[in-house]
Design goal:
This protein has 134 residues and is an all-alpha fold. 75% of the residues lie in helices and 0% in strands. The longest helix is centred in the C-terminal third of the chain and has 32 residues. The relative contact order is 0.09.
Length: 134
């Protein structure tokens, strides 16, 4: 992990310079965390039922699980996956799929509460994420 020294009072431009020191993986993590922070702030202004759903929808697959899954996928593509790792890959895949199913269920419930189509709610999330990456 990259070590970054930060002063207690950090002008915005210096913050950007600090962010530029991050490697690609750390930058991705920072962006994901920043989106979660902004989403939490927006959630506070929503009705309680929508707020709870949005908190659940925006929860990501834990980084360590995603990294392990990606590693095992790579090993499978290289044909170096052991039988034990194959079983682990299946379990991790099922776990990640369950997280995605729960997210979809919550998105569906949010769409009902907002009286919108599921596609419209998903498009809103995609636009929000796109704005953060532009």
């Amino acid at each position: 992990m990259t070590q970054i020294t930060v002063q207690t009072q950090l002008p915005f431009e210096q913050l950007i310079q600090t962010v530029e020191q991050l490697d690609s993986a750390e930058l991705e993590q920072l962006i994901a965390q920043a989106i979660r922070v902004q989403t939490k702030r927006k959630i506070l202004s929503l009705p309680n039922d929508q707020s709870l759903l949005l908190q659940q929808i925006t929860q990501c697959v834990p980084t360590h699980l995603q990294e392990r899954y990606d590693l095992l996928i790579g090993k499978r593509q290289e044909n170096t996956l052991t039988d034990e790792e194959y079983q682990e890959l299946i379990k991790l895949g099922e776990h990640i799929e369950a997280i995605d199913v729960t997210r979809l269920e919550n998105l569906t419930e949010l769409a009902k509460l907002r009286q919108m189509s599921l596609n419209s709610v998903i498009e809103e999330f995609q636009q929000e994420i796109t704005r953060h990456y532009d």
